[in-house]
Each structure stands twice: as structure tokens, then as C-alpha cells.
Structures
1.
Amino acid sequence: MSQLSFDDNNESHFRILYTIYCQLMTTDYCLRYGSHWEMIGFQGTDPATDLRGAGILGLLQMLAFITEYKIYIKQTLKIFQDIKIPFSITLINITTFVLVSLKDNKLNQLINQEDSVISVINKLYFAGFHLLTKILKKEQITFHTIGNHLTHIRKLIHEQPQKLIREFHSDIQRFYKINNI
């Protein structure tokens, strides 16, 4: 999936993009091209150009995150918008970090325990992004300083995946309990 590029001739590819946008913006309509994509953190009018090394997997992980944790993700989007850090681009970067760990066989133990590659990479993706969100809430981060934090998160994804996943599960349960969800 990471090697699969966005294909305008594949209707399911646009449906994934469409669903991401509509879920995040609470609407039921969006066009394939336009400046509206920048509102959810793509860099321009065509989000397909931002998929880089993540391919369709980057979009599928975004969709999984939104589907599983919609309320949390929508609150997080607002944080990113307020400090002008590109939300979707950041999520795609997290996908590439997880892919590196997968390719370097750093996730084998977790995959064997769960007997599912997709479950492990999605959990680690959620956890990596959540860690960044926690940092954003605590520190003054700008577009120019986020790189250092992303480097730190990439390292933790690579070296401490189990710990990241555990912390995410604990934090997300607390989030939903506090918000009575």
C-alpha cells in the first residue's frame, strides 16, 4: 500500500480522500481539487501530491484514525490549525516513520503477538501522532521547530513501539472518560 500512488482513475482513492475531508470538516461535500484541502493540512489544492513515501497507506491510516477516534482527532485538528502546522502532512510523516520501523524489523515481536501487521502499524501510528499532540499542548511549537520533535518521535517509534502504544491506550481512555464519551 505504501508503494501504491494515488490514482485519479481509481474511484476508491477519491472516496478515501472525500471521507477524510467530510469527517474532519463535518460536511458531506468536497471537490477533488481546491484550496479547501489546506484546511485539513495538505500543502496545496491537490492532496495526492503530498503522499510522498506513504502512498495510499498514508490515507488509509488517516481514515482509520478518524474512524476509530473521531472526536479526539477533530479536537487535535483544531490545535494544529491554531498553530498553523499542517495536520495531514504531519500524519503522513508519522506513516513514513512507522514504515521505516516495519522495514527494519523493529515491529516483529508486536506483530507476532497480535498476529496482525495492520493492527500494529495503525496502533503505532496513532501512538506516534498522539505523542506529538501531547508535546504540542505542552510547548510552544511552530512550523519551524516541529522538525526536532518529529525526529524524537521517529526515534521512539523505532526504539520503543510497545511503550508508545501502551501510553496512547492509557491516554485515549482517559480522554474519552474525561469527555464523557
2.
Amino acid sequence: MKKLYACLIILLGLSGTLKAQITNADITHQFNFTNDNFDFGKIPYGKPAQYTLTITNIGKDTATLDDVRPSCGCTTPQFERGKKFAPGESVKVVLGFNGNTLGPFYKTAGIFLNNYKLSKQVSFKGETFQQPASDSGKMKQTGTVIHQ
């Protein structure tokens, strides 16, 4: 009899926990992502590029941007960890790519929100190309490609 009561208590506890969890399916009801599947097009090989991902809170409660985790070391995120943003407000995440992949590339980053209860994978792609060798008398343009 004690085992039966123990099993019932465990099952009731688990059912309450499962109902309280938020699923990633809910993320589209709470956030709008702009540039979550970004295409750089063609960029010069070895030339860093970056773009801005915007996350807008369309839910009813204040949200928190917990973390941004890129899939590889060639991608660098710039964001404010722990940033809280109210309904209607947005946060920006800048994702940088070092450009050191020759040819087509596809990269991802995980976005974690609300105490890591919600997550979304965002991606960017493009293709790098070799620039022709510059003539000795001409100046070569350098810098970072920036997309908004």
C-alpha cells in the first residue's frame, strides 16, 4: 500500500512539472526574430562580416536574453547577457563571421531566453570568393563588411 501511495505522489509531482514547462513551440508566440536566417551573399575570403539579429518581445511578460552560443569559433556574438526587455521592446545581437571559409558556408548560433527555458537556432549563410591579386600600383580596400 505504501508503494502505491509513493507511486501516486511521484506521478502527480511529475504531471505538475510537465505542465509548468514551456516548450520551444511557444517561442513564436513570445518573440519575433528578424534576420534569423540571414544570407550574406558573396563576400571576399578572409574579410570579416557581421549582421544584426533583432529579437522583439511580442509576449505579455518581460523577457531575458540569457546567452548566444555559436556553433564554431569562426562566429562571434556581441550581445548584452542577462538583458531584460519588456513587451514591445527589442534586443539586438550582432553575429560576426571571420570569413575564413573558402566557398559556400552555413553557420548557426543558439539563442537562449527566459532562464534557458526557450531557445532558437538562428543561421546565416553565404559564399566567400578569392579576390584577384591586386596590381602593385593600386591601393587595396580593407575593412569589415557590415550588413544590417
3.
Amino acid sequence: MRKVREVRAQLEDIMTQHKYTVQSANDSCIVRKAICSAYFANAAKLKGIGEYVNMRKGIPCHLHPSSSLYGTGFIPDYVVYHELIMTSKEYMRNVTAVQGEWLAELGPMFFSLRESHESRKRQEEIQAKIMEEELNIEKSKKEKEKIMQKQKELAYQRYLKSQVIQPGQLGGCENEKEQNIQFRKNKLRYRGL
């Protein structure tokens, strides 16, 4: 307990130096998750009654009799430990119960979750819906572009009909070359280019 008090005092000093408020949490999951983030490399999975196997090295190990988890009737599926003691059996000391999802979250380079067939199928359905929605969005964009193009063409045709052209002149130009240039400029302007 003396070591625990020393660590707590160090943490309080660090918090006050950085001007953070010191709050105690009643939720043990936060503390267990913090321990898991430090010791995820020493994770073990339940193999049998009271027997665990190291998830990275495959070493069989057991809960130490002095552990608080030993003999409680609660046998967690996943644990992390600080050290292994070699006697007639290999015992884990300083053991904390963790959740398998935490290992995959905090140590993704070592652990991953296996997906069941139903969850994979559900994920594929979700992906198919997303792709279908994206396709519908693209179709609606193309339809809008076609409608805008038709509106521009109609506006240009209305413009041409509204122009009064005198014989031998197109838009007030004297020679044929100027008429063609003026015609192209008007056409580009009303098409929005």
C-alpha cells in the first residue's frame, strides 16, 4: 500500500503542476482500461478452469494464489499481468481482468476481433446500402446537370428568336467575318461558357 500512496502522490503533483483538477472516479473500468493500455503485451486468455494461456507467446500460466482474483468464483475471460513467476507452475502476479475489445482497441498491432458470420453479413449489407446511396446521388447530380444544360439551350434559343436581324446584317455587323465572330460570341455567352 505504501507504493500505491507514493504513486498517487506523484500523480497528484503532476496534475497540480499542469493545473488539472484532481477527481476520483468510482468507475473501475477506467482504471482497468488504463492498466490494459500499459500491459496489453502481457495479456492472457482463459483456456480451462483457472488456466490461462499467454496470447502472444502461447505460454500456459495460472493465477497466483495471492491474487485477489484467485478463489473468488469469478474467472475473467481475459487478464493482463505484470510478471510471471516460475515455480512448479507459471503464475501470473499483479493480475487485472480486462475485456477482449480493449485489447483489440489498445493493441491493434497484436490483437484483432474475429467477426462472426452474421456481423460480416450485416456489415456487407450496410456497405451495399452506402454504395447504392452514393450511386443515387451521382445519378441525381447528372440529371441536374442535364436539366441545367437544357435550360441554357432553351435560353439561347429564346435569345436568338428575340434578335431582330436586318437583311445583310447579323447583330449590327457589316461584313460576313464580323457576323460569324459576333454569332460565336453570343452563342458562348448564352451557353454559360
4.
Amino acid sequence: MGISITSNLKKEAYSLDDGKGSAKPRPEKGPLSTHSLTTDRAVEEKDVEKMVFLQAFVKEILRKHPPTYFTLTHTVTEPTTVAGYDVPAGINVEFYLPGINEDPKIWSNPKKFDPDRFVSGKEDADITGVTGVKMMPFGVGRRICPGLSMATVHVHLILAKMVQEFEWSAYPAGSEIDFAGKLEFTVVMMKPLRAMVKPRV
């Protein structure tokens, strides 16, 4: 599942970079260039921690386009009340992630793809759920996805490398990107992303 999630998130990232399907790093605060994509060496894993905007960019992808619509099923162990609803013990509960990720009570302008929300300090979210649950793309608690660490490291590093080495644009040129998703093993783009890739000189 970790490989599937990593692949799908990369596709979403290429599509979302400037809203037109074109991955063009901006100076210093650019989505994937950020701190120091050097020209004399390939970006390495140790560089990622300095790339603040890249981290925010990936977090916003996970918020807007979670890898799946629902968390793993959890069983209620004791009666409780959630949002005015009585939940008896013994039933199975699933959480609908887009409902949390686009809740205006939790997020400002939730429909907008805006990585700056995490850079400015206005908003934050711990994707592990340790310090609070505002988004849980990999689940939370004891049943959190064991592939979280691998998937997030791969997504950050591969996106940085792909943008360092290549220019990405929609194909055919000027075509609109359809962000509609469908649920397979994970959520994938309903219409597969087509891209033009050119090496950076």
C-alpha cells in the first residue's frame, strides 16, 4: 500500500504544483525547490528537513487528496456520544477523511489548495495524530499505517529530485487537469495524469 500511496501522491503533486499542471520551482519559497536545490549535486534526504515549503506542499496534498476516503475500521469498546449521536459498544466505525479535511470549523478556506497555510504558522496539523487530529491520511493511534514513514520520505525526496532534474507540464499543452478521484486499492485520479517531461539544462 505504501508504494501505491507514494505513486498516487506524486501524480497529485505534479498536477497541483501551479494549478495548471506545470511543475516550475519558484525561488526560495517555491513549492519543491525551497531551501537549496543545488546545481552541483543531486538533492539528498538530508536536504529535505531544510525544505520547509516542500514539507508544507506534501502536507497540503495529503489534506486535499488523502490516499483513501476512509480510515481502517475501528470497533467501539465502550458506549460513547459523538456530535450528539449515541454510539454503542461493539459496532464498527469508519472515519470519512474528506469530511475532516474540508471542515471549515477546522480549516480556513478548506477548498483551496494552499501550502502556505502550514508555512505562515496560521495552521498546522500532525499527520500522526499525536498532538491532535485535524487530518489523518494514514490513520492514527495503534492502527496507524506502518508505511507512513517510508511513504512520506519517498514522496518528499522523489518530488524534490523530479523537480530538480525535470520540467513538468500538462499534455497536451494547456489542457486542464481533472482532479476527480476514484477508489481502487487507494484513491487514484479518475483520468490518469498525462505529462510532458523535459530535462532541466
